[in-house]
Specification:
By secondary structure, the chain is mostly helical. Helix content is 78%, strand content 0%. The chain contains 27 helices and no strands.
Length: 759
């Protein structure tokens, strides 16, 4: 198997375990595994493919809600490219809440879909942010170099926090709170803290970069409001035990920071002699380079003061060009008072300045590398999409060619049929026209005959023999000509009738073939859908036959039972009770199969259900068929003088078949449903009665005295040999029974338990 296929199957398996239909918190290990697999693959396409297939099979609202939580965690904690890839899937996320049946989770699912749409829309507008709002200080410094852009960005971030606030307030407003409903609070806490940290860092950079900080008072008020809302949100989360168990809430202090105090402290530090500060550096989105620079700057910390003194002296002496100390800004705005670069996002210590030329080149190279990586990932995605589109077009072309060929064959057959029909109708019309023409000719001949006859009579009256002979010759010639014309007409009519008969025969054969195919299709569908019903009818026939034999036996009409059942009171009635319960058991299995097929389990109609769960259906039918066979064998043993051990073995086999039927039914059935409970009850009653029947037969066999005369007549050697033969036969039967039971157990484990795990 290919590695990609293995990873795809593992993602599908983990996602199904994370998005179960129960109301417990999704297991974080499965969610983390999905995120790590996307890191390993470098793309989230397999993840979205599994999500889409999972949505096609999912109708349970709880599972759908957990699926959205996995998507949320993937966007927040996943690699950087997944945010841009998730933006392309906004339409799919918006469609997940459509056609959802009403339940307690319908409203939360709708709210979750709306929130994810708002989040992806924000990231589409602000592509520099990661899913958890993680950032580098260069972002805030870039915004600080352009106060108008920074002002707008802070406004957008504070506005986006209102979306987060509305979402978690809707969660807290739900009356029946469950662990599954509280799951989105985990990524929300991380998002809110990242947003707060970024706004705090950016406002700090803006306050130390502006001449008059009073113009930033509106932003400071909004920051204080954001701090209060975030503090209340963390307090609400801290009151929930499930959140405290899974997450450590960040510490943001008891009151908001004062940016004016930070500004004063900054300018106190600026009074010390230092290297001319550079302008704001361009944005670099790579943490690796930042860590390398931090290590290099820590190693040169001891030389910083000496470097500053040397640079100051060089600048005074004019040895160093002042342009080397200037860095290009991201915009063409007039130079402002620059802010120093921070070493890390986790502390407030300002980074010591190193050689500006090296930093400029390193950051430009890193910026180009990041842009190249983005372009490469987009190009790879476009190549994959082109290949998929090409495969789809090839499949469509093959399908269209096949349909054209089928359409051409049917059109050709229809054309030939119409041509034959038109030819036959034309010949029939010609025959009718010839018949009409012949009729007119016959009428003319009749008139001529009557005229000749009249002339003949007149000639005969005048005894003009010569004229009479001429008239007779003319009459004879006319009769001959008429006879030939009639024969020609009859020949043409026969040909037309034969052609019409041949065409009608061909059409009748086609209709017969079509009817046979339809009947065959309906028969196959009947066999597919009604195998269990046929088995139920067979079981009813066995019960009717047994009741008829019992009635004849009690009325003395027929000796229909063996010696064991005739001599043991109550065995016949107990066997009849078992047969009656078996009929109810098989009929209940039929009803449960109908309920399972009607439920669908992610399929649209029964044919798709049988196609998808073919192994389960075959297992259920096989178990029911085995019950009918064992019942027929057991009822047949009651009518013959067989060894009692065969009746005991038959009861044991019947019990095993019933257990197989219950195992097959539990795979897809609702174990708490009324029908399944009735099936379990009937199975228990049948197994109990079969055990009692086996015990009665065994007790009766033991109670029957042995043929003492036959044993007394045996010699000691013959008695010992017969005893060991019986023991050997008993051991063989026991070993065979154990082997059969082990084989049934292996079949159950392989055929059903594995399928249950896959589902």
């Amino acid at each position: 198997m290919e590695p990609g296929k293995e990873k795809y199957d593992e993602i599908e398996k983990r996602l199904k375990k994370a998005a179960t239909p129960d109301e417990r918190m999704p297991k974080q290990k499965h969610v983390r595994w999905c995120i790590l697999s996307v890191y390993d693959l470098g793309t989230s396409e397999p993840f979205w493919s599994v999500i889409k297939a999972f949505r096609g099979d999912t109708v349970h609202p709880v599972a759908l809600y957990k699926m959205l939580f996995v998507v949320h965690k993937m966007v927040v904690d996943g690699p950087a490219p997944i945010v841009q890839e998730a933006i392309f899937e906004r339409g799919f996320i918006a469609d997940t809440a459509k056609n959802l049946p009403w339940s307690d989770y319908t409203g939360p699912v709708d709210n979750y879909v709306v929130y994810l749409g708002e989040k992806l829309a924000f990231h589409k507008q602000h592509t520099a942010f990661a899913g958890n709002f993680d950032y580098e200080d260069y972002v805030s410094l870039r915004g600080a170099s352009n106060l108008a852009a920074g002002f707008v960005l802070v406004e957008d971030l504070v506005g986006y926090y209102s979306v987060i606030e509305e979402f978690y307030q809707n969660l807290f407003a739900i009356e029946r709170m469950t662990e599954a409903l509280l799951a989105p609070l985990l990524p929300l806490v991380e998002e809110a803290f990242g947003l707060y940290t970024f706004v705090k860092s950016m406002l700090t950079a803006m306050f130390v970069s502006i001449e008059d900080p009073s113009s930033l008072d509106p932003l400071e008020k909004k920051f204080c409001s954001l701090f209060g809302k975030l503090k209340a949100f963390y307090r609400s989360c801290d009151s929930l035990q499930v959140i405290r168990h899974l997450l450590t809430l960040p510490e943001i202090g008891e009151k908001p920071v004062s940016f004016l105090e930070i500004r004063e402290d900054f300018f106190k530090v600026e009074e010390a002699p230092q290297v001319q500060p550079t302008q704001a550096l361009p944005y670099v989105g790579e943490n690796r380079l930042e860590r390398d620079l931090d290590e290099a700057e820590n190693k040169t910390a001891e030389r910083t003061m000496k470097l500053q003194g040397d640079v100051g002296e060089s600048r005074l002496s004019g040895d160093i060009d002042p342009d080397l100390f200037k860095m290009p800004s991201l915009d063409d705005s007039p130079p402002r008072r620059p802010a120093p670069i921070r070493t890390s996002t986790k502390n407030d210590q300002w980074m010591p300045r190193a050689a500006p030329e090296c930093r400029e080149h390193v950051q430009r190279i890193s910026f180009l590398e990041s842009e190249l990586e983005k372009e490469t990932s987009v190009r790879k995605r476009l190549v994959v999409l082109c290949m998929e589109q090409k495969d789809r077009l090839e499949k469509f072309a093959q399908r269209i060619g096949k349909l054209k060929k089928e359409h051409g064959d049917s059109a050709m057959f229809e054309k030939k049929t119409y041509q034959k029909l038109e030819g036959a109708l034309k010949r029939v019309e010609e025959a009718r026209e010839a018949e009409r023409t012949e009729k007119r000719r016959n009428e003319k001949l009749a008139r001529a005959y009557r005229e000749l006859r009249a002339e003949y009579v007149e000639c005969a009256g005048s005894k003009n023999e010569k004229e009479v002979e001429e008239l007779e010759e003319r009459l004879e010639l006319e009769k001959t000509r008429r006879q030939r014309q009639q024969e020609k007409f009859l020949d043409e009519k026969e040909l037309a009738e034969n052609a019409l008969h041949s065409l009608q025969k061909d059409l009748a054969e086609k209709d017969t073939r079509i009817e046979e195919l339809e009947k065959q299709a309906s028969t196959e569908k009947f066999r597919e859908d009604n195998k269990m019903e046929v088995l139920a009818d067979e079981m009813k026939d066995l019960l009717v036959d047994f009741d008829d034999r019992k009635r004849k036996y009690y009325e003395g009409l027929e000796d229909a039972f063996g010696e064991l059942f005739r001599t043991t009171p109550g065995l016949i009635d107990r066997m009849g009770g078992i047969a009656s319960l078996l009929v109810q058991l098989v009929q209940t299995a039929v009803e449960e199969q109908r309920e399972i097929v009607q439920a669908g389990h992610g399929t649209g109609d029964p044919s798709q259900f049988y196609k998808k769960y073919h192994r389960w259906k075959e297992g259920l039918v096989s178990a029911a068929k085995q019950i009918v066979q064992d019942s027929s064998r057991l009822l047949g043993l009651a009518g013959r003088d067989e060894a009692p051990e065969k009746t005991i073995v038959g009861c044991t086999r019947l019990t095993a078949s019933i257990s197989q039927l219950l195992t097959a039914a539990r795979v897809k059935a609702d174990t708490s449903g009324k029908t399944h409970l009735r099936l379990e009850e009937l199975a228990a009653r049948v197994q109990t009665m079969a055990s009692e029947l086996s015990g009665n037969v065994r007790q009766q066999t033991t109670a029957v005295p042995a043929d003492l005369d036959a044993f007394e007549k045996m010699t000691e050697t013959e008695f010992t040999r017969r005893l060991y033969e019986l023991k050997e036969e008993t051991e063989q039967l026991d070993s065979e029974l154990v082997r059969k039971r082990e084989e049934i157990s292996r079949m159950n484990r392989y055929g059903y338990h594995q399928e249950e795990d896959a589902v």
